[in-house]
C-alpha cells in the first residue's frame, strides 16, 4: 500500500460531503452518519465532484445516494478535512473533503445504497466521537454548537 503524507494538502484529491442534520422538538440538533462500505466506520455521505454540478449540489446528491435524505443544502462549506481513502487497488490516496450543511427535510423509504450501509442519528457530541477523522469531528462540533444553534 502506498500512502501520501498527511501534511501535503497540495496532493489531496478533492471530494464533497454533506453533514445531514435535523432539529429535534426540544430545539437540539441531531446528526446523521452512515457507515463506509469497506471499513464500516462512521462517516458523512461524501464522494467525488460531479461534472455539471456545483460542489454543494454534488454533496446533496451523495446524501441522497448514501443516506436517502433530501433537504436544504448550504451553498458554502462549513470547512474541510483530510483523510486517507483506500482505493479498489488497495492503494491509499489523500482526500480533502469540503463539508456542506444539509438540513434534512425528507427521509426516503428507499435509496440507491440502502443495503450497503448502516445509518444512525447521533447528538452532535456523539457524532464527533463516532467519526475517526479529527478534522471532521471538529467541523461537527463547530457547526452544531452545544447551545443548540446551527451555523450555516
From TrEMBL:
Pfam families linked to this entry: NUDIX
Residues forming coiled coils: none
Domain Nudix hydrolase span(s) in chain numbering: 11-144
InterPro entries: DDP-like_NUDIX, NUDIX_hydrolase-like_dom_sf, NUDIX_hydrolase_dom
CDD domains (UniProt xref): NUDIX_DIPP2_like_Nudt4
Region (Disordered): 1-21
Organism domain of life: Bacteria
Cofactor(s) needed by this chain: Mg(2+)
UniProt KW keywords: Hydrolase, Magnesium, Metal-binding
Protein known as: Nudix hydrolase domain-containing protein
Naturally occurring in which organism (per UniProt): Methylobacterium cerastii
Amino acid at each position: 500500500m502506498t500512502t501520501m503524507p498527511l501534511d501535503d494538502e497540495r496532493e489531496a484529491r478533492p471530494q464533497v460531503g454533506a453533514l445531514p442534520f435535523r432539529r429535534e422538538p426540544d430545539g437540539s440538533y441531531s446528526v446523521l452518519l452512515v457507515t463506509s462500505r469497506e471499513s464500516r466506520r462512521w462517516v458523512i455521505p461524501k464522494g467525488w465532484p460531479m461534472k455539471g454540478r456545483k460542489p454543494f449540489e454534488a454533496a446533496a446528491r451523495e446524501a441522497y445516494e448514501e443516506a436517502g435524505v433530501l433537504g436544504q443544502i448550504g451553498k458554502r462549506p462549513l470547512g474541510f478535512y483530510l483523510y486517507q481513502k483506500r482505493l479498489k487497488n488497495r492503494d491509499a490516496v489523500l482526500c480533502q473533503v469540503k463539508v456542506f450543511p444539509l438540513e434534512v427535510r425528507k427521509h426516503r423509504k428507499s435509496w440507491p445504497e440502502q443495503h450497503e450501509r448502516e445509518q444512525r442519528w447521533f447528538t452532535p457530541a456523539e457524532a464527533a466521537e463516532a467519526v475517526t477523522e479529527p478534522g471532521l469531528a471538529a467541523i461537527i462540533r463547530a457547526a452544531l454548537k452545544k447551545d443548540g444553534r446551527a451555523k450555516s
